[in-house]
Write a structure and sequence with these properties.
379 residues; alpha+beta; DNA Polymerase III, Chain A, domain 2; 3 domains; 9-stranded antiparallel β-sheet; 26 strands
Length: 379
């Protein structure tokens, strides 16, 4: 293999591909990215890991077709530190890759491309079109509620759902059993028969980072029984570049989340969002290790209080509210409240209760598609 490629193109592609690769994997081939050059002037950069893989086609000057698996993080670190105006020449000889960007020269060990993990693929999966901005927003506003570690493996991801009877609506749902986030957005086009898949948390977080700047592009989304594939035309790197993420779905059935939504929410508390976040920030300075915050609402006023491990460490604060219904006296994990409230966008938010000591439904009047549930904490 011998090719010449622009440093900015290869730098961005390697930075994305290495997010799929576990540098600490005990099997050497799994710590590599795959480089594949074709005579048509296309260069493939592919990173593969436990949860997902990324592949990207780049334009390049290919003098000799071929491929090699190269240590992902080493190669990415070298390319990142090269000046952006330099063209990079990559040449394979035997079991080595030579990288030249005059006057800089490096060699790295390679492994056979035939030993690299096979491409994740699932045939006959229907495709839909969704804007990158919409999908990223769905994941960004829900993934925080998915646990990184949980014996209930089916919770370790974001449930992406499109029902045939909800024309044009896609939902993202995540929960750890203590709080829940459900975000719904309308999309143009036919959703076909609908789908419901659990996308691994690691893949979701990587996607939101990698595609954060692609808010004007579109995804082609294909959700199958084992895999979900997202293909994006990456206009930021030139018309010839293309990027695809394929993730292994979490096996299992997602809980019937609609059953945990509080019903008969006759008590409604409307409060200014930013002052509430500021008050929570102050109160949580003295919280115990469980972040417990006492939540009392009555007579047009919300009172928050907390105490630390040391009985002398205490704090309280008050805020005016619009209030209808019964008096509320309960306790929440303050961090969970902050997570939910900070992802709302309106000037005001609503807490809705069906029972004085029951779960809180956190609603954003400025965004009817966003819904959060926070369970009460044991005091």
């Amino acid at each position: 293999m011998r090719l010449i490629i622009a440093q900015p193109l290869l730098d961005k592609a390697l930075a994305r591909a290495k997010t799929a690769v576990n540098a600490k994997d005990t099997i050497p081939i799994r710590t590599c990215v795959l480089l594949q050059a074709e005579v048509e002037g296309r260069v493939l950069v592919r990173g593969s890991g436990e949860f997902f893989e990324l592949e990207e086609w780049l334009p390049g000057e290919v003098a000799e077709a071929g491929g090699a698996a190269v240590p992902a993080h080493q190669l990415a670190d070298i390319v990142r530190r090269l000046p952006s105006q330099r063209a990079i020449t990559l040449t394979t000889k035997g079991t080595e890759l030579a990288l030249a960007a005059a006057p800089s020269r490096f060699t790295l060990p390679t492994r056979s491309p035939e030993d690299y993990p096979l491409v994740l693929n699932e045939a006959g999966v229907p495709e839909i079109m969704i804007s990158a901005a919409t999908l990223i927003e769905l994941f960004e506003k829900s993934a925080f509620a998915a646990p990184a570690e949980d014996a209930r493996y089916y919770l370790r991801g974001v449930y992406l759902e499109a029902k045939a009877d909800q024309t044009g609506a896609i939902r993202a749902v995540a929960t750890d059993g203590y709080r829940l986030a459900r975000i719904e957005r309308r999309v143009e086009g036919d959703l076909g028969k609908g789908f419901g898949v659990i996308v691994p948390r690691d893949a979701v977080l990587a996607l939101t980072r990698i595609f954060a700047a692609a808010d004007k592009a579109d995804f082609v989304l294909a959700a199958g029984e084992r895999l979900v594939r997202l293909a994006l035309a990456d206009a930021n790197d030139g018309a010839a570049a293309s990027l695809t993420m394929t993730a292994r779905l979490v096996d299992g059935s997602y809980p019937e989340y609609e059953r945990v939504l509080p019903l008969d929410n006759n008590t409604v508390i409307r409060v200014a969002r930013k002052p509430l976040l500021t008050m929570l920030d102050r109160i949580m300075i003295v919280c115990d290790k469980h972040h417990q915050v006492q939540f009392v609402a009555s007579d047009g006023e919300l009172a928050l209080s907390a105490r630390g491990e040391d009985p002398a460490s205490q704090g309280s604060d008050r805020l005016s509210i619009d209030y209808t219904g019964k008096a509320i006296e309960t306790c929440f994990n303050g961090k969970f409240l902050v997570d939910a409230v900070s992802r709302c966008t309106g000037e005001e938010i609503e807490f809705r209760f069906g029972e004085p000591r029951g779960p809180a439904l956190v609603c954003d009047p400025a965004d009817p598609g966003a819904l959060h549930v926070v369970m009460p904490a044991n005091r």
